[in-house]
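Preliminary data (for renewal application), acetyl coenzyme *A complex.
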Amino acid sequence: MSNTVTLTDNRTGASYEFPILDGTKGPSVIDISTLFTQTGMFTFDRGYTSTAMCRSSITFIDGQKGELLHRGYDIAYLAENHTFLEVSYLLLNKKLPNAHELEAFRLEMKKRSFIHEGMMKIFDAFPDKSHPMAILQAAVASLSSFYPDHLNANKPEEFHEMAMRIIAKMPTIAAFSYRFKKGIPIIYPNLDRGFTENFLYMLRSYPYEHVDLKPIEVKALDTVFMLHIDHEQNASTTTVRTVGSTHAHPYACIAAGIGALWGHAHGGANEGVIRQLEAIGTLDNVDKFIARAKDKNDPFRLMGFGHRVYKNFDPRAKVLKKMCAQLIDEIGIDSELLKVARRIEEIALSDEYFISRNLYPNVDFYSGLILKALGIPNDMFAVIFVIGRVSGWISQLIELKEQDSIKIVRPRQLYVGESNRV
Ligand code: ACO
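Predicted structure:
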């Protein structure tokens, strides 16, 4: 039996054969690259829900099983035993670092965490009403003019430098985006602090005030960064690869990814969770909102429940659920918002409507609660997501650039406009 699929055109009876390609895990794919030349037709796949757009060896997801692997390591194992920087190293270098490699990686991150002073003028130009994501995206795009040589990066050491720079500078740019918007003094990176601790310090500190960072807060934020590090070919990663396929500057590709991530259907979802919990407000209102979520005639959806790919408990949500409980317990928060969140989680996990549709709490539900507990402002949630995801984006971009040849991403369409009018 040949490893092919045969497509029959029932209008003419003509058949066409396409090879089946097998990966190491997950569904096989039908290679339809010769479809148009063979049949004169395209495929129609809105949202690319049935399309594999590349070969990749970075991240694997099994949505039915609720499995997520980075370079073959299960996310629960990584979260239990490693830090965000170690997993960043893993994505970039295809292996976890030994103690010596990790020390060198950490040191390089620290040294590269400062940004060119000329960038201050860019931050300064934004009005107070700017969303921090707007400032972040513009500042990251501007990095392409501070490091023009990365445009032609094609050697391993050049890829390394462009990756280290962007990962190391992202927390600084993120914290500055927030502080310039608020009009409060910026705080430069502190080299005595670790990667995640330093970000919290740059976000929270004041020149006149000692900042108290609890180890559990740093651990919780580090876990949020790690849990967002990469997620296969999602909208923002696909955007980074699409822009990369035109050979644009790597930091222009990352800036495009930030634009894609901003929306509430992607990186803005955890902010949506908290805004919805704030709107529900009190325990008395929970039943009313649950009834709305279940009402077929009401477009209202419970934010933080369900996932396009995971039809089982999102493995990232499992890790963050535990971390969220630990954080809340250790810092001792007991807000009305938390009570509302707990009640909704309880109902959704036992109610037939949610069970029968596989609507489990997703990663955004718990990351929203963690970021809220850390006192991070709602409009910084997507920015936090970017700090984590940039390690994945840059690894995916390097993987694209390492291929023998890059094919520009150029989908086709089903034209439904006017036919020739003259
Ligand atoms: N609340 C209430 N009902 C829901 C919800 C929800 N959050 N999500 C899905 N449903 C219902 C739908 O109404 C539908 O019901 P029906 O079968 O009776 O018509 C059924 O569950 C299936 O819904 P679909 O929209 O087909 O599921 P899909 O997998 O396409 O949607 C999505 C996934 C978009 C994430 C959806 O669950 C949703 O809107 N969730 C809320 C928003 C959210 O939390 N987004 C973040 C996702 S995580 C991330 O992107 C990183």
